[in-house]
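Here is one chain, start to finish.
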Amino acid sequence: MPGKAKQYVDQSMSTVQNAVSSLQQALTSAEKPENKAKIQQAINSLNTAADQLRQYKD
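Its structure:
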């Protein structure tokens, strides 16, 4: 079924973007520097994943 994988990739991209948005809110709420660093690291990882997904060609 052509395009099915692309559909899953697009859905995953949306999920990643929502997660980044939520983590950015958490980042503004976090108080401890070590927690801010962990959240920022997660954001960076998700942004890297999004970059990889953007390169997907069906």
